[in-house]
Hints:
The protein is α/β, with parallel strands linked by helices. It contains 10 helices and 8 strands. The strands form 2 sheets. The chain has a 6-stranded parallel beta sheet, with helices on both faces. Strands 3-4 form a two-stranded parallel ribbon.
Amino acid sequence: MVGRSLFITGTDTGVGKTVxxxxxxxxxxxxxxxxxxxxxxxxxxxxxxxLDAQALRDAAGVxxxxxEICPLQFxxxxxxxxxxxxxxRIVDLDRVRDNYATLAARHEVMVVEGAGxxxxxxxxxxxxxxxxxxxxxPLIVVARMALxxxxxxxxTLREIExxxxxxxxxxxxxxxxxxxxxxxxxxxxxxxxxxxxVVGEVTAQSVASDTAHKNIQxxxxxxxxxxxxxx
Length: 231
């Protein structure tokens, strides 16, 4: 699986990570890969269950249980450590690692979706970036197509570089509806700033037409992932 499995993070919450993760899963499946999925921890989980994890499971078409895919589920829509504390629980990273090992042994490729951004706290003294590093997975960064995205994206990429986490690319996500003129101007600058780091753009139209996976340059993702893990 080296150079193929991926960890999806975002520049912020609500940037469209799950939509992008599902598109990546479907793009990999179109290349013939058996894809396993995982949402290690999901907050804001009510009676209907972990919706992000369910979307990933549906995209992958796997028979793995929701409990395997999403071992840590919390009701409060907050950072995982905060949501866990609200219930008198802890974020059990050992359980996450054990579940990942089980699923990774079962599937050719794994796509793991984090919660929030890279610095979102998990267990005390740990964050999402630590989880990606601990699972030894290169990152795909999901960035919104909206005002503020330049700052959020560049800060995220600098932190990834500081930690020396392999980067498979950035995928731009139209998560907030139609773009304003300001949004488009900022997006043009960001595209130029990122250059070939951008490996896809998921628009609202592509999601509505069920073609978002075709907007992911999955061969470039796999190539970048392999090269940066080897470097």
